[in-house]
Structures are given as C-alpha cells and as structure tokens.
What we know:
The chain is of the alpha+beta class. 37% of the residues lie in helices and 28% in strands. It has 2 domains: 2-84, no CATH class; 102-200, Immunoglobulins (Immunoglobulin-like, Sandwich). The chain contains 7 helices and 11 strands. Strands 3, 4, 7, 8 and 9 form a 5-stranded antiparallel sheet that branches. The chain has a 4-stranded antiparallel sheet with strand order 6-5-10-11, with no helix packed on it.
Amino acid sequence: MNGNSAGGQGVSEQLNMEPPSLVTAASLYNVLESSVLATSGLGLTGGTPAIPPSLALFLLRPKSMSLQSLLYLLITPLISSLSTRVPSHTDIMIANLRDAALPVPVLTVLPPSSEELKSNKATLVCLASDMSVGFADVRWLVNGNSVTSGVITGSVQQQDNKKFTLSSYLTIDSSEWDNSKVITCEVSAGGKAASVKINKSECSE
C-alpha cells in the first residue's frame, strides 16, 4: 500500500514539475510507463498496460490540469500526424483523375453593337458556360495587358445540367475597338482555364 502511494506521489510530483501548458502528451506517457505502471498496481500483462493509457492519464492527471487540456494534449499529436502524412501514390492518382475529369469552361465573346459604337463606347460580353464549380476568376486583357477598369462580372448561375455559367462585360473606348486591338477574356474555374481572343478585323460588319 505504501509502495503504491509512494509511486503515485512520485508520478504527481513529476507531472507537477511543469506547468500544465508545457506538459506534453509524450512526457505524460513516459511518466506513466516508467513510474505508474511499475509501482501503482496497474501492472503490465505481457508488456501491455492493464488499462488504456488515456484512462490512466485522466485518473492521474495533475489537479491543476482541466479535462479540456488533457484532451488537447492527447488529440494534438494525432491531428499533427494526420496533417503531415505524405500522400500515397494512390492519393495522387485519384487527385489527378479527379482533376482530369473536370470540364474546361466553354467561352464565347460577343462584339459590341453597332448602335453602341456610335456613342464612342464599345462593350464586349464574355459568356462562360459548363463550369464545374460555382465560382470563377475572370480576366480581361487588351493587347495582352490586364485591365480592370470598365469590367463588370455578374454572379454565377446554375445551368439545367448542374454545371455553372456567368457573364462578364468589358467597356472600352470605341477607338480601341476600331484600331483592332486584341481583346482577350480568360476564365479559370475548378482548376481549369480557358481564353478567347477577339478583335474588330475578325468580326463581320
């Protein structure tokens, strides 16, 4: 009885040597194995603890350590090991197959109307359809230079086939259109990207 009490006291002293915030799950397990199982009557059966270590840690935890702190110490190493797991070859193959199966957005760019050009403005419309996800990045370029002024992108809408569509508008001076500058619409959705170029010289009057 005295031996067990001494062993239990030794464990408590070792556990209380560090503030609860600094006690790690590893040190708790080391103390449990070296002091508790050998002297507190829990015993070993064929090298295996007679009770689960997690239960022993709960029963023998310092009084100053809350149950939440104990659970945190026990669960954190498991979460860490899962988050640092190296993806297997199968994981990579599945990811590649999933990405390959996603469709590329279908793009259509409409030129400005002749009526609008009379007002010295030119609005181009980029229609993106059959997107695999309900969000997308849209970029407009004029002669290869990204532009943000005059760009309005509408919200994504779901199609009847469960894929998604959206419309984006670029308004520029009609002189830029008349000078046959190359206008590009780029859309990225679900890791897939597509682009379409248009200029006045390629459009029928």
